[in-house]
Amino acid sequence: MFEHIERVPGDAILGLIEAFKKDTNPQKVDLGVGVYRDSNGNTPVMRAVKEAEARLLNNETTKTYIGSHGAPAYSDVVLPMVLGADSPVLNAKRASATQSPGGTGALRLAADFIASQLPGKGIWVSDPTWPNHHGIFTSAGIELHKYPYVDPDNRLDFSGMLAALKKIPEGDVVVLHACCHNPTGFDLSQEQWQEVLDVLRERKLLPLIDFAYQGFGEGLDEDAYGVRLLAEKLDEVIITSSCSKNFGIYCERTGCLITVAKDTEQMESVRSQVAIVARENYSNPPAHGGAIVSEILGDAELTAIWREELTEMRDRINTLRRDFVEALKPYGLDQKYACVAEQRGMFSYTGLTPEQVDRLRDEFGIYMVRSGRANVAGFSHENLPYLAKAIAAVND
C-alpha cells in the first residue's frame, strides 16, 4: 500500500543541521537552529532545573496519568507567570490552563478547538511568521491568511499591519506574537499594542497570542505586556505559552494553552471542549517538564536562581546584538544592520538575501535559513570578527 507514497523534502532547519555537521571548516558557525546557546556553543541545563530534578527524583511517588488538562500544580504557577500574580483575569476566574506537549502542542490544541467550535472562521498570521504556524493551522482545516509585518526595507511595517487588521472579517482569529517575534525579532511597543487592542475590539476579532519566549526580550513582566493588556480588556483571548526556552527544557516538551472567557461559566464550557481536543490528540501531556516548572516556581529559592539565570541569558543575547552591529562598523555596515540591535529575542531578520545566505554557507561555513533569519544565540565574541568579515564580503 505504500508504493504510491512520494518522498518530500525534509525540514529546511534539519537539513542545515546535517550540512553543518558535515562541514570541515574549523571556523564554521551555526545560526540556524532555534535553541539558546552559551558562549561555548552549548545548550546548557539551567542550575535551577538540575536542582528541581534532583528534588523530584527523591520525592516522586508515582508515574500515573496527570489528566487531559495536566497537573493542577503546573497550571497554578504558569497562569500567574503569564497573566500576572495580581491579574484581575485570574481573580475573576476567567482563565483556564491546559498543559500541552510544548508550545507547538498548545498551538495544535488551539487550532483544533477553533476548527471544531468556531467553524468557518479564518485565521490570520503575520508575514512572515514561524513557518510551522502554516502547517498547524492548515492541517486543522482552517483557512489561513496573512497580514503585513515587515516592509521591503526590513523594518516593522506597523501601519501596514494595522490597515490590514482593520479589513479582517469580524469574528476571524488573529495570531499575534507576544514578544521576540519569530522570525524577525521586531516587537510591538506598548503604544502599538494599545492600537492593536482598539482594532481587535472594533472588528470583534479573536486574538491568539503565541507566547513562546517570555523573559527573552525585556523581562518576564515586560514581555507579557500585550498578553495581559488583551486578556484584561477583551472578553475572549487564546494564549499559547511555552516553557521550553525560558527554562531550557526543550526536549521535555512543556507548554500550555490558556483560554480566557467572559466569565467563569463560559470559561468552564470552553475548558470542557479543550479537554476533549486534548484527549483526541494525545490523551495526557508528558509530566516531567511541567513538574520541573512547578518545582521551580513553587520554591522561592529556586525561583530566584532561575530568574537570575534567565536574566543572564537575555542580557547575553542583547549584548551580542549590539556587539554584532559594532563589529560591522569598520566595514561601514553598522547602519545597514542597525536593526539587529533594535530587535529582541533569539532571532533576527538580518536583511541578508537568499543569495548572500548561500554565499555565507558555501564560502565561509556560516549557516542560517535562506530568509536571512539568524539565531543570535549562535553569535559569540570569538566568532563576531569572522562573521563581520564574511558579511562584508557578501555585501560587496
From TrEMBL:
CDD domains annotated for this entry?
AAT_like (cd00609)
Co-factor(s)? pyridoxal 5'-phosphate
Does the UniProt entry include the keyword Repeat?
A: no
Residues covered by the Aminotransferase class I/classII large domain: 27-391
Molecular function (GO) terms listed?
A: transaminase activity
Keyword Transport found: no
Q: Which Pfam families match?
A: Aminotran_1_2
Keyword annotations for this protein, in alphabetical order, are: Aminotransferase, Pyridoxal phosphate, Transferase
Question: Family, per the entry?
Answer: Belongs to the class-I pyridoxal-phosphate-dependent aminotransferase family.
Could you describe the subunit structure of this protein?
Homodimer.
Question: What NCBIfam families does its record include?
Answer: PRK09257.1
The record, for PANTHER family, names: ASPARTATE AMINOTRANSFERASE, ASPARTATE AMINOTRANSFERASE, MITOCHONDRIAL
Q: What is this protein called?
A: Aspartate/tyrosine/aromatic aminotransferase
